[in-house]
Specification:
Chain lengths: 342, 342
């Protein structure tokens, strides 16, 4: 059997069986980042994520500056989803022999921009020539006070479900780039695909003020990442489909391209927004932050019994089961289905 | 200009300029691992290293079990060279779509073997399908008490130079595999190429007992890695060529293949032995450990003024400058020249 015949969950479970977790590790395999207790006061967070040419990006669609920027962002997003403060990072590069120094400089400029914005420091790495495709793999270390750590598994029935920003933009941006249509008329969508910004400050606020009970970043798509949270928190969820935040740009694009904006928002990946659950008694703290415009977030549903699974309520109040299968089928960003984070 | 036209030192210096180090970071770019102060009592060590198919290994020469084992070892070796205790690791995989699940299982068995031997725990990672060559990138976190940290830069004129184990075996093993000769008659050499063992216990002892003033692991070859230590410690070195430890297997192989065993020992990479300097007043501690057979190490030279560079003394007492150029020229393991650790 090849990798194609094996789902990502089978694969992660196979690994977990071979590497049984030790009770001394606060968070091991299976969350956005690992949490390790090197220090008595703080947990050290560790995460790694790669961008591979032809799998995650194409030189025809983006510059090396953007690849560098995005490689940092996707890792920042994982630390943000734990409520952590990102600190230090390492870079592993696989470079085709024909790569231009100009491209490398652009890559490092993009990395430097993203790391300056986030206040993180490069502390090492490793560079190798490869006969295959270019790849960049970043490992990011952060920290969080043990009481502030937000896991995927902390949600309970009755908690409200929120999401930051708008969804589906990055997937629409990719569809647009691939279609060969003029990308300039939808530059917001294209920008979100090429240079996503991680919600580091939002993650910190939601953790520091003890608002979120569970949190995950949306890299694979809303339903897929909500599925991870549901599985690990042992809950189901109702989504208010009319509340799913869709940008004006995505609405315009959907109209023009004759596609369903909601499909992009539910199933499109790479938005790097935060999806989080909030217990009812903490709602006032969040609503205050939203009212003061400190956080841009919207309630999109609530968590229910795990037996009920994932349900969508449309604008007429009609309930429909959202099939997990629908996810793979409707997947816009095919290659991302082949990427698993453990 | 492409990467081919740029040396590895230019490249690392270029990166260092773009990412100025912060004084708050105990060790940033440019040593075997970064050292970070997450905790008041201990430094957290962080290193990353990759193995790429066709660059670092060939399926014709080694099994996936061996690739997994070695991917862990090369990272353990970097932590060992700082005097640290390895703790937790992350895996990034790039998988060609046609990879067999059997191969993946073998890879993870090799990783599990090496991690069990070293007592380290897998805490996360990331797996992606790539259209290019298979790669595995491991990030390893360890720790060390601030006073025990051994850097490349700690050596002084007059310190004695030691190396653990024997040198040149791994490079000869690779030459043997590539030559198509019967590898079984030199299984020790082949084994050291395929499944190198990191000197973790030795590194810990040398640090804990405050024996080593500077240390580096030999991944690029003795002269190359000694060159890093010389540059960062601002010293030169005399090597006693007759003392360079060469295994009986390498001697036999050199005789049979009509090559110079010393060339392999001086310029061959991937032995993952530890090269370290010892101030004269600490020699008694080391000699006791060697006498008790706790550490297998031998004195191969001493550190001299930086103006004198690198000098070799042959068995007749004749001194010859060892040219850094000789390194690239005589390099056995070509692809390793294209791998830089920062």
């Amino acid at each position: 059997m090849t990798m194609k015949g094996m789902g990502e969950f089978d694969f992660i479970e196979r690994i977990q069986k071979r590497f049984p977790s030790s009770e001394k590790i606060p968070v091991g395999i299976g969350d956005d980042a690992a949490a390790l207790s090197f220090s008595p006061n703080n947990l050290t967070l560790l995460t790694t994520d790669s961008l591979i040419e032809k799998t995650h990006f194409d030189r025809a669609y983006c510059t090396f500056f953007q690849v560098g920027y995005k490689a940092v962002s996707v890792n920042l997003s994982d630390i943000a989803a734990m409520g952590g403060r990102p600190r230090y990072f390492l870079i592993s590069l696989g470079l085709p022999p024909d790569i231009q120094i100009n491209d490398l400089d652009a890559l490092y400029r993009g990395i430097a921009r993203a790391s300056r914005e986030a206040g993180i420091h490069l502390v090492g790495g490793n560079t190798t020539v490869t006969q295959g495709n270019f790849f960049i793999s970043i490992t990011l270390a952060g920290e969080v006070a043990p009481k502030r750590l937000v896991r995927r598994s902390g949600a309970s029935e009755g908690d409200r479900l929120y999401v930051t920003g708008t969804l589906g933009d990055a997937a629409a941006g990719l569809a647009l780039l691939r279609s060969g249509d003029d990308p300039y008329s939808f530059s917001r969508l294209v920008h979100r695909q090429q240079s996503p910004m991680a919600r580091v400050n939002e993650g910190l606020l939601l953790a520091d003020q003890e608002i979120a009970s569970a949190m995950i970043d949306i890299s694979d798509g809303l339903t897929a990442d909500l599925g991870h949270m549901m599985k690990q928190s042992h809950v189901g969820a109702t989504l208010e489909l009319a509340q799913i935040p869709i940008s004006p740009a995505l609405k315009r694009y959907a109209l023009k391209a004759g596609v369903d904006a909601l499909d992009f928002a539910l199933y499109g990946g790479e938005d790097y927004e935060l999806l989080f659950s909030v217990p009812e008694k903490r709602l006032h703290k969040l609503e205050r932050l939203i009212g003061e415009d400190v956080i841009q977030a919207i309630q999109i549903g609530r968590l229910i019994s795990t037996r009920k699974g994932l349900v969508g309520r449309d604008d007429k109040g009609k309930l429909n089961k959202i099939s997990p299968k629908g996810y793979d089928h409707l997947r816009l960003n095919q290659e991302k289905t082949q990427s698993t984070q453990s």
